[in-house]
Hints:
alpha/beta, 23 strands, 6-stranded parallel β-sheet, binds coenzyme A, 2 helices
Amino acid sequence: MPHTAHPQATDAPLILIGGGGHTRVLIDVLQGLNAAIEGIVTQEEALVGKSVLGVPVIAVEKDFAGDPKRVLLVSAVGNRARGNGSGLRVREAIHTRYMQLGYRFASVISPHAIVSRHVQLSEGVQILHGAILQTDVKLGVHAIMNTGAVAEHDCTIGAYAHVAPAAVLCGGVTIGKYVHVGANATVVQQLTVGDNAVIGAGVRVARNVAPGEVVAR
Length: 217
Ligand SMILES: CC(C)(COP(=O)(O)OP(=O)(O)OC[C@H]1O[C@@H](n2cnc3c(N)ncnc32)[C@H](O)[C@@H]1OP(=O)(O)O)[C@@H](O)C(=O)NCCC(=O)NCCS
């Protein structure tokens, strides 16, 4: 596993911000790491008092008053991407809001991911089951390498970007901030995908993609 100065999921009790499908996927990874998950903070009032995969939903966000010195947070809101953009700025808003309150975010790295010793990981990254990060990959803050996603050697993936399940970035690809690379998409080597772009599920990208562009076929 690569050396990283950033907090890891097993360093302190965790509070997850979310409540939906991505939260459940993360809980499963965290349970495999034997992490101490204290609870979920959500935006959905109806969830409070219930539990998700055995983890209690403890508060709505506006009522949450934790101790930033005692717990670490996990940003557990996912992203499906529609033609009007990727929605990944929600993850940035969560990061910014809680950082200003003094919280740190844990990285979540599945024990079933393959991560080169020679990668650069930033705070709050999520690398899920079966993902592969080859040598000299750089992953920006809060970026997600989802289940089975592959980043080959020398890829750079921007802050808050989401590489969806089974997507493949060939060698030397640069992915901007807030980019969604759709499930099972392929980006051919050495190409650049600009900030805020959306690559549709299953799409093969063989040219550079402009910032904000949606590539659906
Ligand atoms: C590309 C995408 C962003 C477009 O979203 P949208 O604008 O809401 O698009 P719609 O679903 O309304 O589809 C618009 C048209 O594009 C086509 N289309 C959409 N996505 C496509 C894709 N990935 N490949 C080929 N065609 C696609 C649709 O069939 C439809 O065609 P039509 O106009 O002939 O009926 C979205 O379809 C997509 O692929 N999102 C990524 C999903 C993903 O990776 N999820 C992983 C979650 S972990």
